[in-house]
Amino acid sequence: MMSLKPRNVDFTETWAHLKETVAGVVGLRAVERSVWNTRFSDVYALCVAHPEPLADKLYDETRNFLEEHVQGLLQRVRGTVALDNNDHNDGLLTRYVTAWREYSQGVAYLNSLYSYLNLQHVKRQKVSDAEIIYGSSATVTCPEHDARQLEVGELGLEIWERVLVKPLTSALTGRIVNALAAARESPPDPAHASILREAIHSTVQVRAFRVRAPLQLYQQLVLEPYLTAAAAAHAKLAAELLASGDVAHYTKHALAGLDREISLGARFLDSSSAEAVRGCYERAAVAAHLPALHATVHQLMKDAAADLPSASERRVDLRRMYTLLRPLGANALRPLVDAAHAQAAADGQALLALSHNKDEAHTHFVNAMLSLHGKYSKLFGEVFGGAQAFVGALDKACSAVVNSRLPSDGSARAPELLARYCDALLRKRAGGDADVDDKLAAAIVVFKYVDDKDVFQKYYARALARRLIHQLSASMEQEEAMINRLKAACGYEFTNKLHRMFTDVAVSADLNAKFQQHLRDNNLATSTGFFIQVLQAGAWPLGGAMAPLAPPQQLERPARLFEAFYRASFNGRRLAWLHHLCTGDLRTRYTPRLYHISATTPQCALLLSFETVDVWNARELRDSLQLAGDAWHRHLRPLLDAGLLIATGDVGSETEDDTSADATIALNLAFSCKRTKVRLTCANAPNHPGGSSSSNSGTAAEPGETAAHCDDDRKMYLQAAIVRIMKQRKVLRHTELIQEVVSQARGSFAPSVAMIKKCIEALIDKQYLERAPAALDTYSYLA
Amino acid sequence: MKVTVKSWTGVATWRWVANDDNCGICRMPFDSCCPDCKLPGDDCPLVWGACSHCFHIHCIVKWLHSQPQQQCPMCRQDWKFNNK
Asked: N or C: chain B end with fewer CB closer than 10 Å?
């Protein structure tokens, strides 16, 4: 057991012993354990020597020794070869690596031998990492410049770099770069490969302990020269590829080259330079040829989307192209995105233009859009991995196609067609489709692209009203699910009227039950079946004006009973009958076979009028039923068309309101029909310019009229939006106001700036807003 | 009987019958709802006072809660719900 007390030590003698061991350790020669332990104590003894610690002296001597040692190694490594021939197989790299292995390990051991020195003597002088990174007033000098602040192991590495690597820099660089170039062509054998790798990594390890710029040597010695050489090689390769074949050929080999380059980098270079290697390749081999690549994307996109056997190959090409271009950023991809957009839009227009049955226009439209969307979602997902830019391009293309306007009258048909499509699906049909739900869910995909969502809502609400009133819905669950889908897509505001209609139907069922109870309680029950739907005036898209009608006697009683009942149940409400929407189920008794006829109230009244006579004078009949204007024609026409009634003389056509005095209408006693159930509907309202007459049943109201309605609604919506915004902001510039309004309205329609301007004018007239006196383009809100 | 009616489905709409178009408190049309409601109709009914003035029920209740005396805001008579 040695004493830990400081004592007087003879430096020369101790160092002589120590030096021998140090030489052994650094040269990786065997050192006996007892010797090692003694030297360990010697280091301690020197460090704590009395009267004066000898640590500094020991440190200096050790440094001198290591410098000498490395000088010797340099001679060994350099050997006899000429340094400037840059032949990577001349053995220099091998010798370098052998020496590095030996030395680096030796120095690591040495570091342990000197651990007391490191711990007590060096640490104290060392500045902390934080001080180096963030700087501190106390330490202006960089630790690397003061050799006394390095641990012995670090000192050894520093000496290696200074004494051995410096003189060999250009020789090592040349050989490493050449070896890497050779490795790119053909993989070297494992022995050579590991030599090369170790040589490269030694440049990282030799500075690994440094806080500042640990990779500096590696970058100077290996990375930068390598990248310069590689860039030249890549550029040459790419030029050759482009010259020798088409773009498909190029993308294929360029991509293979990229992979090769990356794996080369991963195999030999430090992991930190993967990005740099990749970037270098992309710049040299891809970015330089962007114009040539961009010139081909349109054709490539077209071919990839085509229904040809070769399309799948083109898709692979396109994917390669995308893989090459993607890392170069949005600008390099822009032409590809544009091409995708153009291709999808063109394809969509072509699909829509395919010839189809006019009656099936809605199915054709939705199916075309769905197949377009499906096809390109799949294509872009497959080729571009569903990248955001391409999803966006597809969305833009779809929305452009969906909202494309007819050249003839400039109206977009999408809202109407889509609403009709939904209507057709939701109606009762003979063979109920099993996949209605899926189809409706798919329709939402198209719906999201429709700009004029408010127009769609109008059509949809009208169709829904018809289904609910005439009980044509295939299933209430489906109806409700569809409304919920619309709500999910467009929000509560959009569907609240639709919800309201649903509630009314439910409330009506309840009301009917109560009414029946009321009838039973008061012994008022009638033989006629009676069911009523009471709708809230504001929520339903039904014609406002009621056609006057003297209801037939058979129907008057239940109607009056109900009115009385309703008045008693609800305070302050007025009922208005919508006769054109009422349906009566009749049974004929005058014909050989019994027919069930379902017809509107006026039609029932017409048929019931023939109770006592077989022939009526047309004008008298009309007047007795108080059927005015076109309502007369609209209800009479289906009866005549079905053959239930026979008209002689001019009973008036739909366009002119002139029932001649001698025209007669007779009951067709010989009526026969193949089916026993006859369903009569009310004909559509003719297109009166004034539209003053009673409203129609809303089957397919004239699009122009709907558009006008929508325009009014939009103006109200915009004005409300403007007031809301201005109320909050008080003062706002014109452009900002327009922006805000557009963003608010986007959910239901795309407003034109002209319309917004008009609304602003209107609000200024109504004194909601004023132009700020000082600035012309600023509005302020008037409370 | 040549033709008999088996059953009849009537369709009718209803609207409020009030002596005014707008609620005197919130100034919204009676066909629409009070500012606190989203949907007009049964959820936002009208009420009549003994003085024959008519309001959204939510509006008049709010008004009565905020006043020391229970008066009709239009005519200052004591407010009584008219239950006819």
From this structure: C
- Shortest distance, CA B29 to any CA of chain A (angstroms): 11
Q: Residues in chain B whose beta carbon is closer than 8 A to a beta carbon of chain A?
A: 1-18, 31-32, 38-42, 46, 48, 54, 83-84
User: How many angstroms separate the CA atoms of A671 and A425, rounded?
Assistant: 34
Residues A536-571: tens digit of each pLDDT? 777 787 765 555 666 777 777 888 888 888 888 877
Q: In whole angstroms, what is the distance from residue A576 CA to residue A573 CA?
A: 10
In chain A, which residues have their Cβ closer than 8 Å to the Cβ of B81?
none
For B10-43, how does the pLDDT look when each residue is reduced to its tens digit (9 = 90+)?
888 887 777 778 888 888 888 778 888 877 777 7
For A496-533, the pLDDT digits (tens) are 888 888 888 888 888 888 888 888 888 777 777 788 88
Classify A525 as helix, strand or coil: coil
Per the CB < 8 A criterion, the answer to whether A28 and A106 are in contact is: yes
B-chain residues within 8 Å CB-CB of A529?
Answer: 6-8
d(CA A695, CA A689): 13
Query: Which residues in chain B have their CB less than 8 angstroms from residue A555's CB?
Result: 5, 8
CB contact under 8 A, A588 and B6: no
Residue to substitute from A508, A585, A590, A644, interface B, most B β-carbons within 10 A: A585
The shortest CB-CB distance from B15 to any of A574, A588, A590 is to: A574
Question: What are the two backbone dihedrals, phi and then psi, of residue B71, each rounded to the nearest 5 degrees?
Answer: -125, 155
**Å between B14 CA and nearest CA of chain A:** 5
Q: Do the Cβ atoms of A536 and B40 come within 8 Å?
A: yes
For A159-215, how does the pLDDT look when each residue is reduced to its tens digit (9 = 90+)?
A: 888 888 888 888 888 888 888 888 888 877 888 888 888 888 888 888 887 777 788
C-beta atoms of B5 and A601 within 8 A: no
Distance CA A600, CA A598 (A): 7
- pLDDT category at A82 given cuts 50, 70, 90 is low
Residue B81: strand pairing partners: B49
Report the residue of chain B nearest A553, measured CA to CA: B5
Q: What is the pLDDT of residues A62-71, one digit of tens each?
A: 888 888 888 8
Q: What residue ranges define each of the domains in chain A, with the CATH number in brackets?
A: 55-214 (1.20.1310), 224-291 (no CATH), 295-492 (1.20.1310.10), 543-679 (3.30.230.130), 703-781 (1.10.10.10)
Where are chain B's structural domains?
Answer: 18-84
Fold of B18-84: Herpes Virus-1 (3.30.40)
Tell me what the pLDDT averaged over chain A comes to: 80
Can you tell me whether residue A667 is helix, strand or coil? Answer: strand
A697 — pLDDT class (breaks 50, 70, 90) = very low
Nearest-by-CA chain B residue for A471: B9
The whole-number pLDDT of residue A550 equals 67
User: Which pLDDT band holds residue A252 (cuts at 50, 70, 90)?
Assistant: confident
State the smallest CA–CA distance between residue A653 and chain B in angstroms. 27
The neighbour count for residue A676, using CB atoms within 10 Å, is 12
Nearest residue to A26 via CA among A72, A89, A94, A57 = A72
Tens digit of each residue's pLDDT (9 = 90 or more) over A585-610: 888 877 777 888 888 888 888 888 88
- CB–CB contact B39 A496 (8 Å): yes
